[in-house]
UniProtKB/TrEMBL annotation:
It comes from the Bacteria. PANTHER family: TRANSCRIPTIONAL REGULATOR, MARR, TRANSCRIPTIONAL REPRESSOR OF EMRAB OPERON. PROSITE patterns: HTH_MARR_2 (PS50995). It holds the Pfam family MarR_2. This is Winged helix-turn-helix transcriptional regulator. The keyword Transcription applies. The keyword Iron-sulfur does not apply. Keywords: DNA-binding, Transcription, Transcription regulation.
């Protein structure tokens, strides 16, 4: 790898770590961990959110997702609704207290995202998103080909 590419990749990795650290710090201040916040994002982004969708979308081990869901359910924030096609699969639904908890956690962080996005502008956000998606796909394909594994499958990644 030439020096310019090495430096660019170092900057990419540092940027990813910086963004993730900001979310992790937000989570910690609110008594959560980073993965718990991801569960809330998944529920926001998927009308019929299931444990499998979360694990697949965020490349998390199913057990990690299950542990968080079990905890949220125990705390009274979440209920599970069986899927008609597959009784084993359950849709996550917030309870009334879960909705209030969700709003207390997510509304402020979404405001921070909005402020940051407005400072960057829609076009830069579009470019950043498109390039991050493209890079992620190329990197996953390259690693999958080199290792003969599917890096998108649960179990091939760490918490």
């Amino acid at each position: 790898m030439n020096e310019e590419i090495r430096l660019l990749m170092s900057n990419v990795n540092t940027s990813i770590i910086q963004i993730r650290a900001a979310y992790a710090m937000w989570a910690k201040v609110h008594g959560l961990n980073y993965h718990e916040v991801l569960i809330f994002y998944a529920m926001r982004d998927n009308e019929e959110c299931t444990q499998k969708k979360i694990a697949d979308s965020y490349r998390l081990p199913k057990q990690t997702v299950n542990n968080i869901i079990t905890s949220l359910k125990k705390d009274g924030y979440l209920t599970l609704i069986p899927v008609r096609k597959n009784a084993k699969e359950k849709i996550l639904a917030l309870t009334e207290s879960g909705e209030a908890y969700y709003r207390s956690i997510m509304e402020p962080i979404l405001e921070f995202e909005t402020l940051a996005s407005e400072k960057m502008g829609k076009e830069e956000i579009r470019q950043m998103t498109a390039l991050a998606i493209k890079f992620g796909q190329i990197l996953e394909e390259s690693i999958s080909l080199q290792t003969n594994t599917d890096v998108t499958k649960e179990g091939n990644h760490n918490e």
